[in-house]
Amino acid sequence: MADDERAERSVNRRILALAIPTFGQLIAEPAFVLIDTAIVGHVGDSALAGLSVGSTIVLTVVGLCVFLAYGTTSRVARLMGAGKRREGLEAGISGLWLALAIGIVVSVALFVFARPICLWMGAGGVALDDAVAYLRAVVFGLPGMLLVYAANGIFRGLAKVAITLVAAVAGAILNTVLDVALILGCGWGVFGSGVGTLIAQWFMAVVLIVPALLWARQEGASLRPRMQGIKASMGDGLVLFIRTLALRACLMATVMLAARMGVRVLAAYQAVNSTWNFVLNMLDAIGIAGQSLVAAEIGAERPQRALRMTRAAGRAGLAAGIVIGIGLIALGLIAPPLFSASVPVRHLIAVGMVVVGVTLPLSGWMWAVDGILIGAGDYRYLAATCIITACIYLPSLAGIGVLCNGSAVPDTVRMTALWAAVTLLFIGIRAIFNALRIRGDAWLNR
User: Fold this and answer.
1) What whole-number distance in Å separates Cα of residue 14 and Cα of residue 36?
2) CA distances from 35 to 257, 274, 275 (A)
3) How many C-beta neighbours within 10 Å does residue 411 have?
4) What is the pLDDT of residues 150-163, one digit of tens each?
5) What is the DSSP letter of 252?
6) Do 130 and 50 form a contact (C-beta atoms < 8 A)?
7) How does pLDDT run across 315-346, given as a tens digit for each residue?
8) For residues 343 and 302, what is the distance between their CA atoms, to the nearest angstrom?
């Protein structure tokens, strides 16, 4: 019994040692948006609504490319667990080349089609102009952020994640300084917000890529593009892309519904959404820590230790969800003035944060197990269940739109319905599928 307890504590320490610095990298993009939201919110409601649309598009694109981090983490960790260090680093370098290529192509496409995309998202009037200005200013920072994602896959696989915390903190500080200077000092509004984020994204990319390349060279890994490695990254990435596409379709549909509920609801949704994305990355850090550890154990063919880590990560995610959820509820009661000068918008922000805080323990557990299954390479199951989730969630969201249509429905009801749908349906359905999966051991034999 004592040996089991010592083993359990050892697992918890290993998860925590990876989760804390991993959180640093994960909060980079949401932290940028959260900082932007707090500053732009004092420019005006239309500026905040425009930022909501523009940042949602950026976060969607970055989220769709999350396989650059997840896939690289799993491959590098499994190869490291099997003792193939050089091969693991070369897999990480292939991820960097793929990230750069995707980032360049996507940036050009978003710049050219910025206005029709923002219009399709539901933006109109001054909010449309602000959304387009933000998107075109920030878009060429995307290659830098995708390189950050891929580089972090290398660091996680190597269990060298402290540098990600340094890069994230430095990037957030730089972004804040630039926001104050460009948005308030120069009067550039949301355009200044986009420029500041662009510069911070490339700064972080340089900070992370240079040591990644140096470590790879020390191990004798090739830095040149390797088509075999890039194809392997794309193969894993395609299934993860389909998974993420289904999830992002749900979130984009939610923003589109918020846009159709009026500027106040959309502005408040942006404030809550940016906070939600921030705290979810605290939870995701636990999942990614478990992902790296479980992938290494699978590579070393130690399934029982992988199962032990899975249980520990799930409990850690649940506990973190409880603690952070309580903090988020408190934040909802005192922090809305930081996001808007409008009293009605402040009230809606408080409502949304309370709903999210109450349901966050479920999110904590789900995110932890989700990361474990990604680390195990169980991509097809995750893609299939996320598609099913989207098929249930999107019609449900449409039904909410019909029920909340009309001037007789208070904005408070609309805000509550939006976030209840996200936290209970979007998260809850995925939690059920993940729970069913880890009841067996098929996912350990991918």
Assistant:
1) 34
2) 24, 9, 10
3) 18
4) 887 777 767 677 78
5) H
6) yes
7) 888 998 999 999 999 988 898 887 777 888 89
8) 56
